[in-house]
Structure formats: C-alpha cells, structure tokens
C-alpha cells in the first residue's frame, strides 16, 4: 500500500515482508504476501472492525459497484489510489497507484471481493511498473 510521503518506503515494505514471514512461515515465500493481504481483510471482517452503513450498502451493491464507488471516493480516504474499469459483469481491471508488493495488494483485493459478496474471488497481477500495478479481478 502507498504510505505517507514522509514515511520511509523501504521500511514499510520490509515491515510487510517481516509480518508475512512471521505469520505464515510454512507458506511458500512467494505466497506469503498474498496470504497476508487476504488475512488482513478477513481479520477486520471477522472482528467487526470494519462496519457501518457503507459496508452494509457495499455488500448489497456487490463487488463491481462497490469497488467502482470506492475508487471514486478513495482519494479522500485512502493513500492507495485505484482506477477501476469494468471488463464484464463479474470481472474488473483494477489499476493501483503502487508497483511494489503487488502480491500483497492482490491478497487485499481478493479478501475485499469476498467480503463484498463475490464468490470464489480471483485476482491476478497482469503487470507492474511505472509506479502502478494492473490486476484482473473476477468472481462468480
């Protein structure tokens, strides 16, 4: 995730790696970041730390509409900027203004789509570079 400009980015990235390594030592190294991202969303949901009217409405709207709305409103509330384009009714192209640790972002999106009601969510990183990651997000 993108962090405040004053925060040393290498420290942020390393803290994500160390957390993933610590929580999931038995998971293959390349899958740990993705697992951590998904775990964060699932933990927030199961502990009811993310709640309120927006989440209730987002679940009713479903992943496609909720993610598009979140991207439109996101710059006001989040340092991570998203651009969401519809590919089909149950597939989106999500461009994230961050090209580091795409697997972590992948896991966050996959967990979020599941929380929003998407069955069997799938996120695939299609490309990274130039300060952004492009991901295909789909569900049943």
Model description:
The chain has a 4-stranded antiparallel sheet. The protein is globular, with a radius of gyration of 15 Å. Helix 1 (9-23) crosses helix 2 (29-46). It starts with 8 loop residues before the first helix and ends with a strand. The protein contains 5 helices and 4 strands. The chain is an alpha+beta fold.
Order of helices and strands: HHHHEEHEE
Terminal Cα separation, in Å? Answer: 26 Å
Cα-based radius of gyration, to the nearest Å: 15 Å
Number of helices: 5
The percent of residues in helical segments reads 40-55%
- Order of neighbouring strands in the sheet with most strands: 1-2-4-3
Roughly what fraction of the amino acids lie in strands? 15-25%
Question: Which sheet architecture does the biggest sheet show?
Answer: 4 strands, antiparallel
Q: Structural class per helix/strand content? A: alpha+beta
Question: What is the average of the pLDDT values?
Answer: 87
Shape: globular
Annotation, overall tally of beta strands: 4
- Low-pLDDT segments, ≥5 res: none
List strands and helices in order, with pairings.
Elements (H helix, E strand, L loop, with lengths): L8 H15 L5 H18 L6 H9 L1 H15 L4 E7 L2 E6 L5 H14 L6 E8 L2 E7 L2
Antiparallel strand pairs: 1-2, 2-4, 3-4
Keywords for this entry:
140 residues; alpha+beta; 4-stranded antiparallel β-sheet
Give me a quick take on this structure.
The protein is of the alpha+beta class. Helix content is 51%, strand content 20%. The protein contains five helices and four strands.
């Amino acid at each position: 995730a993108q962090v405040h400009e004053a925060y040393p980015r290498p420290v942020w990235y390393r803290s994500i790696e160390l957390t993933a390594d610590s929580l999931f030592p038995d998971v293959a190294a390349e899958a740990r970041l993705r697992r951590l991202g998904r775990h964060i969303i699932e933990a927030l949901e199961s502990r009811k730390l993310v709640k309120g009217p927006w989440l209730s409405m987002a679940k009713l709207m479903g992943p496609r509409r909720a993610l598009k709305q979140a991207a439109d409103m996101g710059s006001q509330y989040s340092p991570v900027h998203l651009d969401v384009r519809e590919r089909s009714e149950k597939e989106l192209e999500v461009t994230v203004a961050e090209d580091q640790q795409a697997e972590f972002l992948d896991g966050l999106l996959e967990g979020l789509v599941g929380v929003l009601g998407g069955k069997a969510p799938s996120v695939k990183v299609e490309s990274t570079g130039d300060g952004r990651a492009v991901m295909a997000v789909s569900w049943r």
